[in-house]
Design a protein that fits this description.
491 residues; alpha+beta; Uridine Diphospho-n-acetylenolpyruvylglucosamine Reductase, domain 3; Vanillyl-alcohol Oxidase, Chain A, domain 3; 5-stranded antiparallel beta sheet; globular
């Protein structure tokens, strides 16, 4: 009997020595060890694919738009449907893993990827279904704005999203969602009817104004703090297929006068008209005189959401400002206009942003902007001013988690360059301008423009709504399982 026990013990020990394990980053801050058999079991359970650092396609799967982010998850779960997401969440919980969630777009802060943990990727979940009769659309969490716009514009319909077709619908919407149609129809979240989401427990729920209404309130602006939204349903509006839109390009020499006149024109604008300001070095656009390529310019980017004839009349004061180098306002396909800035925001560059919100635009603010344009550290850097107001401001501030409703302008200092050697100078330029104009701002910030270093500003993004969000986090994710985001800490 004793001999038998010794043989069994030896045999068992040999089997234990043969078991392959992997080390992961854990939510506790320590390390978690997982047997390969458990990973293989997860892989067998899902429709999608489980990738490890030795898998083909791993580097592509972990690489995001912002080249400044270079993180290496120990596991990537590429989900194909909501139930894959459930299984991945339950696996992460069971093993105490640090988990990040990747949608389909940019993720400036880099929270979509984690070092050593598990990334749950939705990039394969890109379906868009449009019901033209009810003017609604459902879209999966891995889709981009370009994919969403294309499906909706096939029916002459749209909802407010962003300004770049490669942006992900999920991240944009969960942070609020602002763009060319927001003054006319509100933010993306103001047109959100319901969501299908996976909770921190790995369960599937549908949240709307009538189901899980408190959670639906928090989802609309609260980022990815409460779960993984796998499907969104939006209200659609009659837009396009062509809209009056385009660029008016001016030499930078006239910038202060142009900005002052723009400020006056904004006071009388209807909700149908949206005009953003861009200050940067002129790209080699065919309609810009070649002598100005690579030189600083001020650009008015405009869209009119209504009747084109009415739009032409309303745009006349804007088009009469100064002596532009180029004016290409005209009828353009809406989906094409949504992609107009794509070449300036392609994958692979290093990106660093700093942002403020404003009630009004003061002359001193203009002076700081113009001074910063004189010292642009890279031809890819730009400063833009997004015009808000209109329908976004008529929604009560406590109706959604996104609470900074009364602001009229958002500035984003968009630092962008090609190499790591440029980081120091580029970041210093962004921070310098950010600090210089802080005294003119409200102190608020759009959560989607925050970088990973700005966790101290998360509360500024929500204002008076922040404590309610903390309460929701305690209710729906008390262990802070979803922490790779602009985090609302339940503690």
């Amino acid at each position: 009997m004793y001999f038998t026990l010794l043989v069994e013990r030896h045999f068992f020990q040999e089997r234990r020595d043969d078991i392959q394990t992997n080390t992961f980053a854990a939510t506790s801050g320590a390390e978690a060890t997982i047997e390969e058999s458990a990973i293989a079991e997860l892989s067998a359970k899902i429709k999608g694919e489980v990738l490890t650092p030795t898998s083909a396609g791993y580097d592509e799967a972990r690489t995001i738009w912002n080249a400044m982010i270079d993180k290496r998850p120990s596991l990537i779960v590429q989900c194909m449907d909501t139930y894959d997401v459930c299984k991945a969440v339950r696996f992460g919980r069971a093993h105490g893993l640090l988990v990040s969630v990747r949608g389909g777009g940019h993720n400036i802060a880099g929270n979509a990827v984690c070092d050593g943990g598990m990334m749950i990727s939705l990039v394969k979940m890109r379906e868009v279904d449009v019901d033209a009769e009810s003017r609604t659309a459902t879209v999966q969490g891995g889709a981009t704005l370009g994919e969403f716009d294309a499906a909706c514009q096939a029916h002459g319909l749209a909802t407010p999203t962003g300004i770049n077709s490669t942006t992900g619908i999920a991240g944009l919407t969960l942070g609020g969602g602002m763009g060319w149609l927001s003054r006319r129809y509100g933010l993306s979240i103001d047109n959100l009817l319901s969501v299908e989401m996976v909770t921190a427990e790995g369960d599937v729920i549908v949240a709307s104004e009538t189901q899980y209404a408190d959670l639906f309130w928090g989802i609309r602006g609260g980022g990815g703090n409460f779960g993984i939204v796998t499907r969104f349903m939006f209200r659609l509006h009659k837009v396009g297929p062509e809209v009056l839109s385009g660029l008016i390009v001016h030499p930078i020499d006239d910038a202060k006068s142009l900005l002052q006149q723009y400020r006056e024109v904004c006071k009388d604008m209807s909700d149908d008209l949206t005009v953003w300001v861009v200050m940067r070095k002129a790209p080699p656009l065919p309609f810009v005189p070649e002598d100005y390529h690579g030189k600083p310019v001020l650009i008015f980017a405009a869209l009119y959401a209504g009747d084109m004839e009415a739009g032409a009349k309303e745009m006349a004061p804007l088009r009469s400002i100064g002596k532009p180098l180029a004016d290409v306002i005209g009828p353009h396909p809406f989906a094409g206009w949504q992609a107009a800035f794509d070449p300036l925001l392609a994958d692979g560059a290093r990106n660093y942003w700093k942002s403020h919100e404003f009630d009004q635009l003061e002359d001193g603010f203009f002076d700081e902007l113009i001074g910063a344009v004189d010292t642009l550290p890279s031809p890819h850097c730009e400063i833009f001013i997004a015009q808000m107001g209109g329908a976004t401001s008529r929604v009560p501030s406590d109706s959604t988690a996104y609470g900074n409703r009364q602001i009229n302008f958002v500035m984003n200092v968009h630092g962008r360059w090609e190499s790591a050697e440029e980081d120091e100078a580029g970041i210093a330029w962004c921070r310098g301008l950010f600090d210089a104009v802080a005294r003119f701002s409200t102190g608020g910030v759009y959560v989607n423009f925050l970088t990973s270093e700005e966790s101290s500003r998360v509360q500024n993004a929500y204002g008076a709504n922040y404590q309610r969000l903390v309460g929701l986090k305690r209710q729906y994710d008390p262990a802070n399982f979803f922490r790779m985001n602009q985090n609302i800490n339940p503690a």
